[in-house]
Amino acid sequence: MKNRGRLVGGRWRSLGFPFVFLLCLFFFLAGFFGSTLFSHKDEGILRRRPRMLGESVEGFDLLPHGETGEDSLSLIPYQVLSWYPRALYFPNFATAEQCESIIEMAKAQLQPSSLALRKGETLDSTKGIRTSSGMFVSASEDKTRTLHLIEEKIAKVTMIPRSHGEAFNVLRYEVDQSYHSHYDAFSPSEYGPQKSQRVASFLLYLSNVEEGGETMFPFEYGQNMDGKYDFRKCVGLKVKPRKGDGLLFYSLLPNGTIDPASPNANFKAEPLNVDGCTLLKGRVSTKDVFGMSDSDLVPGKYEGGLKLWEGSLDLVKTLNTEIKEKTLSFAGKRVLELGCGHGLPGIFAISQGAAAVHFQDFNAEVLQHLTIPNVKANTQQMALSSEKCNSETELRYFAGDWSDVHCVLPHVLPDDNVGQTVEGTAGYDIILMAETVYSISSLPSLYKLVKKCTSSLHGVVYVSAKKHYFGVGGGSRRFVSMVEKDGVFGAVLVAEVADGSSNVREVWKLHFK
């Protein structure tokens, strides 16, 4: 990401988030995913919608988008570059005169750019991470009113009030200057408790660049999340600066958690023997990751992903038994683990030669601080042993609620083909779930996701759970009852754990009828 003498900047207001902003975000997302006039009820949520602005986009060349982006423009000049992360591009957002006005106002006040420090970091240890110069200025300080107009326009297209933003940060990058890979949101586990949080950022490019200067998203579509990439090579989704164009990207997911991003927090691993299989079990605390006291469940914020539940171990044991009895093989299969947490069942699938293993959890922080490092620790251990581990296994990680995470998962059946034979890469061969059916309120969305993600050719689903979860109403029997009533899947009980001292636990196997 080296630059050839460019003025980058007008980084509008990395947008802040007091409590009242949740309402604004709700209405923004509602308008974004639905039609502006509420007249497209039957259309997919990824369809582009005309917005408020009517500038012409004639002559605009479409940018290369990521795997989840869209390749055409709507009447309003924006292009969806990616849905994971959420990134939108606005061509010709500002005029050349406005860009020059901002440059002229800022250039005499530029100072070396500063950097927010994580716990344990110092100015010396972070030297060289951010080498640009910059300055902060609010719209009220600009006598030309250029920033006022830009700010109003940003508020209009994002539907986010001007009062919820920080000051503009105008940045200049000289030749060979850069800002290393980073994230705009601040994880409490790394930066300490946050009174507010950055939801999104809007970049306004003030000049053209002959070479370099790209803004990159290395984790687009769940790629490169094992950290094995060189940011200087600009991997993933890349956006090249063009004078007057804008880039909007979100740092938080719709559920309010940080998009998978930051380094791991206080991760420790210890060996665990599961039915003769040695796996590594990671350990982090809710205090380290979420900045709150240890808790198994905080509805809507934390769903227990940092705790190793018995159902995960039951599932690994059952999978091992199925393999020994030659009723299951992971070799060459696509596997999805829902509600992964530690990811032990998915890690077991890796050890058995799966072609692809994708991990999903409600909390991005769980993926960041537990799942990814735990997978990495186990695969490194496998490489040193005689495991069947396929070093080419495709590993990806997805955060989000079961009601909408299918939008970013790569192997999903079309709505009208659920339960029908579909050739090609639609659906996963094996879906693994441990302790996911605890809440009665979430069962419908979970089951709908399972149907959309299971390959209709030969797909199977393994569900490990307690027979009944007291206090929240869910359980394996209630979930199986829903499955049998629907009639799409058949269900077979393959394992039961009843030790007399704890809740009865079960493992069920589902398959299309």
General description of the model:
The protein is an alpha+beta fold and 513 residues long. The chain has two domains: 79-115 and 126-250, q2cbj1_9rhob like domain (Jelly Rolls, Sandwich), CATH 2.60.120; 269-512, 3-Layer(aba) Sandwich (Rossmann fold). Helices cover 22% and strands 21% of the residues. It is built from ten helices and 19 strands. The protein has helices at residues 21-33, 96-106, 146-158, 188-191, 286-290, 310-324, 344-351, 364-383, 443-453, 476-486, and strands at 6-15, 79-83, 86-90, 111-112, 133-137, 168-173, 200-204, 215-217, 237-239, 246-250, 268-274, 277-283, 334-338, 356-361, 394-399, 430-434, 460-466, 489-497, 505-512. Helix 8 (364-383) links the parallel strand 14 and strand 15 (394-399). Helix 7 packs parallel to helix 8 (364-383). The chain is elongated and about 75 Å long.
